[in-house]
Amino acid sequence: MRFSNMLRAVFVVVIASIFGCGMAGDVIEEKPKQVEMKKKELQWACYDRTEYILNRPVLGLGAPVILKLKQFPDWNGNFSASTRGIVEITGGKKQSALFYFKGINRTWAFGYKNNHQIVLQPDQSAYYYDFTGAKDGERRKAGQSFRCEKL
């Protein structure tokens, strides 16, 4: 009988350890889970389109970057629903921007009343529009065009 009681005790300990159950008096310490963000931002470096020939920089190692476009995810890490961005112009001037999708194009609107817009198309072409003084619904031609690369 003594052997069977000992066998039962070993059996209980083995089963408890398999299923993660603690024994009486054990302290189970739970550590908080850390949430990992997939990416903290999406970025594009944009060059003056005149610096490009056949989608390659004219200058040997690369044309000078004119501006950088950044898109930030929403609080859930989702980029498709994001509304925040930054337009960084060469020389270090950063402008926070309202970011949104307009169809399949990404748009950064910034400046007073969001009168300035940069529209990035899926082919990585970007266009700058200045709507200062424009009437509601007025169309404008792009003031400058860029070739961008996703970083």
Structure in a nutshell:
This protein has one helix at residues 2-18; strands at 42-48, 52-53, 56-57, 65-72, 84-89, 93-102, 105-110, 116-120, 125-130, 144-150. By secondary structure, it is mainly β.
What is the secondary structure topology, with strand pairs?
Layout: H1 2-18, E1 42-48, E2 52-53, E3 56-57, E4 65-72, E5 84-89, E6 93-102, E7 105-110, E8 116-120, E9 125-130, E10 144-150
Antiparallel strand pairs: 1-4, 1-10, 2-3, 4-5, 5-6, 6-7, 7-8, 8-9, 9-10
Kindly, what is the distance between the CA atoms of the first and last residues, rounded to a whole number of angstroms?
A: 73 Å
Q: How much strand content do the residues show?
A: 35-45%
- Walk across the major sheet and give the strand order: 1-4-5-6-7-8-9-10
Largest sheet: 8 strands, antiparallel, barrel
> For this entry, what is the oligomeric state of its chains?
single chain
Any key phrases for this structure?
single chain; 151 residues; mainly beta; two-stranded antiparallel ribbon; 1 helix; 11% helix
Structural description of this entry:
The structure is a single chain. 11% of the residues lie in helices and 39% in strands. By secondary structure, it is mainly β. It has one domain (42-150). The protein has an eight-stranded antiparallel beta barrel. The chain is elongated.
